[in-house]
Amino acid sequence: MTPQASTAIAALDLTILHEPVEADQVVDGTPTTGSTTVTTFGELEVGVWEMTVGAMRDVESDEVFVVIAGRATVTFGADDRVMNLSPGSVARLAAGEHTVWTVTETIRKVYLAETQIAEMHIA
User: Fold this and answer.
1) Which of 15, 31, 70, 78 could disulfide-pair with 107, CB 3.0 to 4.6 Å?
2) Residue 50 burial (10 A CB sphere; 0-12, 13-18, 19+)
């Protein structure tokens, strides 16, 4: 779905197809992830991403996001800093950061990322 200017979608109601997380990224459980592009905005992709309960390692892209459902923590490998996420959280991730996402309640976020980066990976 690609809405045009001056339209709205219900991000919580979007159907998102999931795939299992790659085995070498799994830290705990059997998490799955999925995303869908909603639109583009200049050089930015706007989309919705979701992860089920479990934990996974990731290398981040430049991204800003808002959590709209669920709960998780993101632990940053460089300094063991922990970011707690719940509905309403607004966060910024920097390209190249090594993280571990630990999801305790399926999390869904609306993200903005550079178009070419978003095509590679969003987490």
Assistant:
1) 70
2) buried
For residues 2-14, give the mean pLDDT.
Answer: 79
Task: Tell me how far apart the terminal alpha carbons of the chain are, to the nearest angstrom.
Answer: 20
Q: Which of 16, 38, 53 is nearest to 113 (CA)?
A: 38
Phi, psi dihedral angles at 94 (to 5 degrees): -105, 145
- The SS3 of residue 52 is coil
Residue 109 and residue 68 in contact, taking contact as beta carbons nearer than 8 Å: yes
> Model pTM?
0.87
CB-based contacts of 22, cutoff 8 Å, min separation 6: none
Greater confidence (116 vs 18) lies with 18
Taking residue 91's Cβ as centre, other Cβ atoms within 10 Å add up to 15
Contact present, 123 and 75 (Cβ < 8 Å) = no
* Distance, CA of 105 to CA of 43 (rounded, Å): 32
